[in-house]
Structures are given as C-alpha cells and as structure tokens.
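Q: Structure for this?
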Amino acid sequence: MGLPAAPAEGAAKPAPLHRGQVVVRLRHVTKRFGSATVLERVDLAVQSGEIHGLVGQNGSGKSTLIRLLSGVYAADPGSVIEVGGEVLSNPPTPGELSRYGLAFVHQDLGIVGNLTVRENICVGRYEPHRFTRAVRWRNELDAVKATLAMLGSVIDPDCLASTLHPGEQAVVAIARALHKVTPGSGCIAFDESTQSLPRDLLPEFYEILRRLAVSGTAVIIIGHRLDEILALADRVSVLQDGRLIAAGLDASQITEAALAALVLGREVELTTLREHWTDARPTRNRNHSGLCAVGLESDILRSIDFEAARGEVLGLTGTSNSGHEHVPYAIAGVLAQAKGKVVANGYSFVLPMRNPQGLSDAGVALVPQQRAVEGLALEVTALENLTLPRVTQHGRLFLPTAWQRAEFAEAVRMLGIVPNKAKLPVAKFSGGNQQKLLLAKWLLGRPSVLLMHEPTQAVDVGARIDILRSIRAAAASGVTVVLSSIETQDLAFVCDRVLVLRSGEVSQELTGDFDASAIESATYSSSQTAAGVVPYGG
Amino acid sequence: MPPTAEPLSEEIPAQIADSVTSDPLEQRRSGVPKRVLALFRGEGETGFAARYALIGVWVALAVLLSALVGGAFLSSGTLTTILGTQQPLVFLGMALVITLAIGEFDLSIASMLGLSATIVPVLVTSHGWAPLPASLVAIGSAMAAGAVNALVIVVVGIDAIVVTLGMATLLLGLASKISDGTAVGGLSSSFASISNTQVLGLPITFFYGVALVLAVAYVMRFTPLGRHMRFVGANREVSRLAGVRVRRIRIGAYIASGLICGVGGVLLTAGIGGFDSTTSSTYLLPALSATFLGTAAIQPGRFNPIGTFIGIYFLATGIVGLELLGASGWISDVFYGAALILAVVVATITRRRTLTV
C-alpha cells in the first residue's frame, strides 16, 4: 500500500501556534469584464494560522478572486490587495507573490503535459548552483520526492505529466503550491482542489492543510462541498453574485443548511431534499434489460459482467484506479483497449469497435467527465454544441434552424440553463450551466442508454440538484442510466443500485436502502482488507 | 409521501419558459436568396462593427488612395486590374480556409497550383496533348499531392506544417524538372477563352472565384458538413465522441485543397497562355495574409471564405494604389508581410475576446 496511515488525532482541529495576524487583506476589490460585474467591492481579511473557506455558486466570483490575488487578472482601479501590511502592485507580480510566499492551486490545475512531474512542480523555483548557475537537480529531486510523499502519493517525479490521469495531475498541482510555501508563513489557496483529487488521498490532503494552518500559514479553500468546507475551515466567507454577503463566519457556529441558504440566497433544506429523493425512487421494471455488459476488459477492468434494466439508475464507484471510471467509456466503444460484449437496446456489439457510431445509433449516449476537453467545444455557441450529435438527421445538403432553436428551448426548460442565449459561446456560461448543456446535448437525442462519468463535477448546489433531477426524470421515462462517480451523495440520491469496484472487479453490490456513508464504507473498508491492491500511482 | 418523480415541466419557473421566443430575424432566413444574404451576416454575439470593420477600412483606404493618386486610381482600368487579377489568390485562399478552419495547415497550396499550371502547357506543347485531358491530369496531380499530404499527416500522424512545407518544396522541384526550369507557353487562344472571356467588363475568372467563395461559404455555414468542420476545428475529441468522422473530414480537406489548387492552376495557366514554375511560391504569402485578414470580417475570430475574399481585394487595392504612387515591386512584399503579421495579431485578439468570460 502506498498510503501511510492517517494519524488518528489529526481529525480534531488543534489550536494554531500564532494566529490572528492578517496575512492577506482585500479592500474594495472590484472586477468587471465588459459590462458584467464579477466582483463588487469585496473586503476580506485572511489571517495567519487559519483555514478560510470561500463558498458561493458557480459564477459568484470565487475563482476570479483567486485569479486577482495570483495576478492572472488585474483588479479594477480602486481595489487594494495587501499582503503582510504592504500594498501589492495591481496585478501582483510573480516576484511579490514569491517574496510573500503566496501560492495557488487553480481550478484548471495548469499542468504542462510535455514536462516531467518534477519540472512541473519546480517551475519558477529553481535552485541554481552557486558558481555554475546550473540547476541543482539532485537537491531538487529529493525535495520533490519529499513533497509528493507528504501527500501520500508515489508518482514517479521523472514521468511526463501528460501520462498521469486527472487525479494524479491534481496531486502534482498541489505539490507545486506546497513547494512554494514555507510552513509558518505566507498564504496558500486551493480552488476546487478536492474535486479532482483522488478520494484515497483526501485524508492526507486534509491533514496537510491542518498542519500548514497550525504552523501559521494562512490557507484559503474554495469549494462546492459545504460539508467538507465546514469540517475543514475555521472561518467561512460567502460570495453571492460577486458580493461578499458573509465574511469570516465561525465555521463551528453554522450548520450546513444555513450555509447552503446563504450560498443559494434562498432557503433549501438539503437534508429534506435527500429524504424526498429516497422516497421518490420509482419501482423499476426488471423484466426489460436495457443494457448488458459481458466480459468487459481493459488494462484495469478484469472481466466485468453486469446488467441494467430500463428505467434503472445503476451507480458505479470505487477508489481511483479501481476501474469504475473506465466502464462508461468502454461501453460507449471509445476506450481503445476495451474488450468484451455489450448488448444495448436489443442490439449486440463486440468491443473493440473501429467506429463507435453503431452504438450511438442504438441509442447509447456518453456524457464524459472532462466537459472542456471531451464534452463541449468552448469557443462554439451553445446552440451548435447542443445539436451537434443530430445535425445529419435532416439531410446533408441543408441544415435547418427551426429544430435547433426548439432543442435549445427544450434544454432551457428541462434544466433551467442561464443565460437563455443560444448564440453565446459555451466558454461564457458558468461551469454548472456548461454541465447542464453537456447533459442536455445527449438527453435531447432521447437515448435508451445514458452513460455518465462525474456529471456533477465542479457544479454548485443549485445546478447539481437540477442535474440529478433530470437524470432521475430520464430514468422515469425508461432510460437505462449508468453513472460512474465518486460523489457518494449523488449516488445515494439517484441510484437504484450501486456496484463498488476494486482492482477492476465488482467487489460489492448495494441494493435497497443505502445512504452515502454506506457507499463510502463499502468503497474504502473493502480496499483495506483486500490483498493485491494496486497502490495509487504505482 | 411524495409520489414518484414528477414531470419536470411542472417545476420550471414560468419566466424561463416564456422567454424562449422565436427570433423574428431567424424566421426571415428561409428561402434561397435570403440564405445567400445570410452568408454575409455574422453569427453569435459579435457586433455589427466587428463584422464589417474591414470593409470600412477598405473603403477608407480606397478614398485615401484616390485622394493621393488622383484620377488614375479612379479609372476603370484600375478597378479592372484590382478585380480581374486576383483569381489565383481566391482559389488559394479557399484551399487555405478549408484546411485552417478544421485546425489543419497546408503550406503546399502554392506549389500544387504551380504544378498544375506547369503540367498543362508541358503536356500540350511538348507532348501534343489536347487541353482537356492535360487539364484533368494537372488537376489529378494536385489532388494526388493533397492525398499524400493527408496520408502522412492524418494516417501516420506527422505535423502538418512540416509535411506540407516539404511537399511545397518537393512539388516546386518537380514542376521545375518537367518544365526544364524555364517558362513554358504555347497554349492556344481558344483554350485561353476559359479564363479570358470578358463578362461585364471583367475576365470570367473573377466570377469563377465568386462562385467558389459562395459555394465554400454555403457548405461551411449551412450544411451538416460545415457544422462538423467547425467542431473538428474547435475540438477533435468532442467531435469524435459526438459521432463525427474526424479523420474523414481531415483527409477530405487536404484532397479538396488539392482539387481547388489544381483547378486554380489550370485557369491561371490558360489565362496567361503558359506558366513559369519558379513563380508559384510568390502566391503563398499573399494568400496566407488575406486568409488571416479574413478572420477580422463577417465571422470575426474564424477563418471564413467571404472574409478571405474581402481580405484578398483589400490587399490588392492597397498594392495597386501604392504602385500607382510610385512604389516599385518591393512594396508588395513589404505590404503582404506586414499585413500577415497585423492580421494574425487582430485574429488572435478577436479570438481571445470570444473566449474570456
């Protein structure tokens, strides 16, 4: 196993050594893009030795705030960013950031694919030899190894970053930020880092955050998972439509529901919604098989068989590298090394397939995880992205527009996409609305089998509920849904049945009544007792 | 206890459903003549100014030059020169638009055009062929070169710039070999009529160019193929997962590029009555400049045929005007080079604007 045991006493929040000095102070920070105001006179103080949670819906300005602080954008005139009592230039220069020990992990990670892990981690922070000015690779390598080990990861520092999967790339991005910060000083900000981090590394990650805070470093965490933020943070600030509506709330004094109400700007009882959902599970018709996979194999999957009925939502989960994340792509025929047989909607297919078109003709639709890479073309309009799978259905000589407008209107009605502008490039929609567009792109084709991988990744609470509802509605109309996810709450929301994978095999099946913690324990407890588990990154 | 999942439509706030009204502008876009007009309209959220600014600058340039040069610039001879001599560039520009729009790059276009323009007089004069079979062989050779480009770039997976740069030099050498390194001529005047027939005071090649531009614009704007091309250019993985035959489109673009260059070469050589193969490389940079300049018009930020067409005549106007002002041959190199750099800067900034939130 590559995972060091998490220290038991690390779970509590120990009192920091010297807390209370303001490290980063924002005064009247405003940012406009054209006519849109993204941040409006934000005042925020982050203290040394605290973990400061920053929450808000998609598009509320969280990421913009971090980008202003890290010098990606310049703030509007009148904004002041102070670090350690001194006003930084606008935008802050790389020199200032490194002098004050500010480090950032951005949502898009910023990993350079054709550089090695070590080069990615050390970028901008070389340690040249005193006389030759050559970079001292040996020292650097040791330091990189130490940082990676601290994160509980066994990634080879000399492999190319492009060969890593997204979870490992998140580890590298975090290691790079940790590398820049001297514990006890400065400030480190994580924008949605736990979304992309493999679940089995989360305990180490949380532990590092706490240790950094205890040593006196200011830590800013940005996220959508309110339970996680509340468990980690000392204080929480809430952004709503670019305004800071709550600054520095004591995290121990606020409930998740109260925080959700602040984030959404309206009262939402998450817990009651959950209960409502569990009750609303339709009785599925097990007589009609919608999808059947026989002997599914890939480099990780070891001959998996399963069946999913029409109107059933089947969940697939597991630790990273357990293979659950490969299943949707394998069934859709787009995973090159996959072998096996798929029966969808009465049609039978043998993998691998040269051209996956046949499967999509049989009504199989895939909603991939990386919406910006595999799901949507960002520079193209929402309308064109939405209708892409169906543009050849109306003859090859001319592409009528009426049905495209109708599809967009239907997508807006189904999922509440805002803004309701068909001709806006996808890049200008917020993350949650992009995800809705991606889901609608495939739902509008009336698929008989819907394959999904992390459909609620990096979306806010409101969008997440919309998405989960439409998945459930699709199932109610007879669609077979296969959902691969590590979001145990999502799985508990929508799934009739959950298969837990381990080392490419199905290790457990959850049916009947199960909740998020049941899925969690099935995922992690089994992996500790099992022999021959492939350690992460090994 | 709530019942089973309720229909979603009940949960939609009324104002969202109400705001989905059909665009009156959209309804007017039916009917073929309207469709041709729509080709000149932009798409999406880009403003009127961004779409037609290049035309405005073009008019301003013409006014400035006529003020400087005087009557000579305004004569019909100048207009005919500007409009009537750009046929090879229009064909090369369309070959470039097709490949650039799908994220490919073809630097061998000028050499394919040159090869085609050389093969026709060589076969006709030295080997006694009839013009028609000679032209077909010329077009076929250019398409074959495009197919080799496609094979190496798409099937083997080699960088397009390197492959087509190599192909450009290779074809230049081949054309020089078959013509013994000299200008070849001797084409009949009856063959020349396919290019030189005067229509409305202009050589018919101008109208061939217009027809080609409209055809390419129609395909790219109004057909499923065009939509697929746009997505292949924007994101290949998204296209592949949506069932678009990405490889087929990429291969097709290189072969179409060869076809267009081949036809363009035949028309060029027919119009002149022969061709000097060493001059073909001088067509590449003007075509590149105009195509990148074209991304600043009609559909800002995108390679588009009508924008390219405007770009070609914009540059031609500038050069003819400067030559009338007394600048000699060097001016075209300086002008086209500067225009290429400027055009890429403008294109990059426009693109950046559409992508940032």
